[in-house]
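[09:14] KT: can someone run the structure on this one? pasting the chain below
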Amino acid sequence: MTAALAAIMAVLVDALVGEPRRFHPLVGFGRVASAIERRVHADRRGAGVVAWCVAVLVPVTLLGALHVLSGGIAAFGIDVLVLYGALGRRSLGEHARPVADALSAGDLASARDAVGRMVSRDTDVLDARGVAAAATESVLENGHDAVFGALFWFVVLGAPGALLFRLANTLDAMWGYRTPRYERFGWCAARADDALGFVPARLTALTYAALGDAATAMRCWRRQAPTWDSPNAGPVMAAGAGALRVSLGGAAPYHRQWEARPTLGEGLAPDAGTIRRALRLVDRGVVAWLVVALCIGAIRHA
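[09:31] RB: done, structure tokens below
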């Protein structure tokens, strides 16, 4: 019950306050991780393992010790504060809604600029459908990365679990690329993120299916997820696109080249309304998860 209440408090704080405008903890962590990389980088998997352990396991272990030593209301406060820092539900909407608003107003240039703050593809060559697809895909995927994954590991391991997931996910975004510099060094970061996201990604996909068109979501998950490069993003985005009854995926421009990607979902082409429906899907999922957590807590304490 305590964990459920802490999760509710953290979600409320995130909804009311949003991400810190200054001194964002994940931004600070990124700087620390970059400093670690500069000192220990080598074209070896072992170097990446050492860097990952220093960047992730050290702060998680310290937080775990602090949590145990604090106890009581102090530990509850740590739970709320850490989970709040790990969540990005409000930020997701703050990034996606300007894209939808610009598309609704017929302002493609502003929509491209706004979606460029969400995705890494070349947004200046996207048409309105491509912009809507990019924003919707980002909302669905980050529903897992910035919301449900953190909630899952918080329920499992408390504040240290939420911190573990978010730091690992951040390092994957920094080091988990198949480039000459990161092919070996980033191997650990990529595999750790895959492992930590395996269960929550599938729970996220189930959540999308349960709150949308379940039959289409499950069919798309089964047929399309295996074709996606990421073992966790595939189920999340395929099920999410199916739940929304929209066609996503397909070719996308990266570094001035169009890269072929599998299709996700089925149905109509995405538009501004699709982005808003994806945000509502994530929001309803958060409410559902909190209700389930409360029910489980109540049963355990009955």
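[09:33] KT: thanks! The first helix runs from residue 2 to 17.
[09:34] RB: yep, looked fine to me
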